[in-house]
Design brief:
Layout: E1 2-7, E2 10-15, H1 16-32, E3 35-37, E4 60-62, H2 63-81, H3 91-104, H4 112-119, E5 122-126, E6 135-136, E7 142-143, H5 145-158, E8 164-168, H6 174-179, E9 185-186, H7 194-200, E10 202-204, E11 209-211, E12 213-218, E13 233-237, H8 241-252, E14 258-262, H9 265-273, E15 279-283, H10 284-291, E16 300-302, E17 310-312, E18 315-317, H11 321-331
Parallel strand pairs: 5-8, 5-9, 13-14, 13-15
Antiparallel strand pairs: 1-2, 3-4, 6-7, 10-18, 11-17, 12-15, 12-16
Helix pairs in contact: 5-11
Length: about 325
């Protein structure tokens, strides 16, 4: 069966088979959407004409298909741009960086460890005798918590805790000894304060012992609270945080204060024992240690009030991070 189809002034005869095929082709093209020439995407034109091969179905792609292809190409480009960590391991650059650091050697300020190794022993500043922290017997054998910190640092450097020289210092000269390189580290029940770091050029490696300031007095005084100490004479040691804490506490509680300041802990205890003052003030741990030295320890009491916070720890000079880290991590 055939049908007549008019195309302008010309009438052609189209068979039924051709007509059905034409309709199916048109429907297919409609489903595919607008046709894009392949040469727009950079593909070759028709080898026979050199023009876009529009008549060949393979020469056209639908807009939908073209967009899918473009998305796929963009995704591929992104994958290429992203670093492939599996194919580019970071271990080699890291090793190269570490090799550079090690080859450069320690920073200019890192001289303490070198000096200690060349000397063959650690110079460690300690107290002049505080039971439990640092004290020497008649054979000059040192014991105590602060002494053990010194020995731990020596062990970290030499593998031998005995390679340490203990330098006894009072409260006034302890920081100057560190600043002048007389000692390498100060481990002497010293309170970590902002002013000591900012004005003295020192750094505390950490807190080894949390303490607080208290009061020691005779039991027969009939006093059981620090708020009853108004008008009493208090012995304290110069060059310590105890002086300022004492003044602040009495002022805050509107109490009269008489202070007798002495250069060393030994002098303060002797003045108290000789009744030159009514009360002895210091860190609570030190008060308990000093009470043991009195002829009748039980005749003296320590009041319950703790008027300050005293974080104690080892101290080093600023500017030598290598040494600071060694002491810090030995402490922890």
């Amino acid at each position: 069966m055939s049908s007549l189809r008019k195309q302008g002034p010309i009438t052609t005869v189209v068979s039924c088979c051709e007509d059905n095929w034409l309709h199916r082709s048109i429907d297919k093209l409609r489903r595919m959407g607008p046709c894009l020439r392949r040469d727009d995407r950079g593909l070759p034109n028709s080898p026979s004409t050199g023009q876009p091969d529009i008549g060949n179905p393979s020469g056209c792609v639908s807009l939908r298909t073209s967009l899918r292809l473009k998305d796929a190409e963009a995704a591929t480009a992104r994958e290429i741009q992203m670093p492939d960590f599996k194919k580019r391991p970071v271990i080699l650059p890291l090793l190269a960086f570490l090799a550079f650091v090690l080859a450069a050697g320690p920073p200019a300020g890192a001289q303490t460890l070198k000096a200690v190794k060349e000397r063959g022993a650690l110079n460690c500043g300690v107290s002049q005798g505080l039971l439990g922290f640092s004290s020497a017997d008649d054979k000059n054998a040192w014991t105590g918590f602060d002494v053990d910190i010194c020995r731990a640092v020596a062990a970290a450097i030499f593998g031998d805790p005995a390679k340490v020289t203990f330098v006894p210092l009072d409260a006034v000269t302890r920081f100057a000894a560190l600043q002048s390189n007389q000692i390498d580290v100060l481990s002497r029940n010293s309170t970590w304060t902002m002013s000591r770091e900012s004005s003295l050029g020192l750094m505390f490696a950490g807190v080894a012992y949390y303490d607080g300031q208290g009061f020691l007095l005779r039991r027969d005084a009939g006093i059981d609270t620090a708020l009853q100490l108004g008008g009493k004479t208090v012995c304290t040691q110069t060059g310590t945080t105890s002086e300022l804490n004492l003044t602040d506490y009495f002022r805050a509680n509107d109490m009269a204060l008489k202070v007798l300041s002495l250069g060393t802990a030994e002098e303060s205890l002797k003045a108290y024992d000789d009744r030159k003052c009514d009360v002895l003030t210091s860190d609570v741990s030190q008060l308990y240690a000093e009470r043991l030295k009195l002829s009748a320890p039980d005749s003296h009491i320590i009041l319950p009030e703790v008027i300050s916070k005293e974080p104690l720890g080892p101290v080093v000079r600023q500017g030598d991070d290598q040494w600071f880290n060694l002491v810090k991590w030995t402490l922890y």
